[in-house]
């Protein structure tokens, strides 16, 4: 019984660990795009009213989540897009950038500041 539990735990650990490594892959291969995710930048960060993303050819959708994992806003990405966040409360958010198959290209933390901060 103990061996079975140990094996199950180890198998689950390997599965979760492999999924995390796949999401944090340093390169993106979406359609004909192949570049390092380090080239993708979110700025200004912290922000007050908007943000932009650089180097976005593979990114089709941008989704903002609060720290509880609830989806707050969704945007369709176009080159030179500016993302308006004036209507969300100040705090920390997760911005996930998705490709045309809804796979995560990159995730970053975004700090939404109040006007005086």
Question: Could you characterize the architecture of this molecule?
Answer:
The chain is an alpha+beta fold and 117 residues long. It has one domain (26-112): Immunoglobulin-like (Sandwich), CATH 2.60.40. It has one helix and nine strands. The chain has one helix spanning 2-23; strands spanning 27-30, 33-36, 42-43, 50-53, 61-66, 71-76, 82-84, 91-98, 104-112. The protein has a four-stranded antiparallel sheet with strand order 6-5-8-9, with no helix packed on it. A hairpin with a 2-residue loop joins strand 1 (27-30) and strand 2 (33-36). The protein is globular, with a radius of gyration of 17 Å.
Provide a concise account of the structure shown.
The chain is α+β, with helices and mostly antiparallel strands and 117 residues long. The protein has one helix at residues 2-23, and strands at residues 27-30, 33-36, 42-43, 50-53, 61-66, 71-76, 82-84, 91-98, 104-112.
Notable traits:
single chain; 117 residues; alpha+beta; Immunoglobulin-like; 4-stranded antiparallel sheet; 19% helix
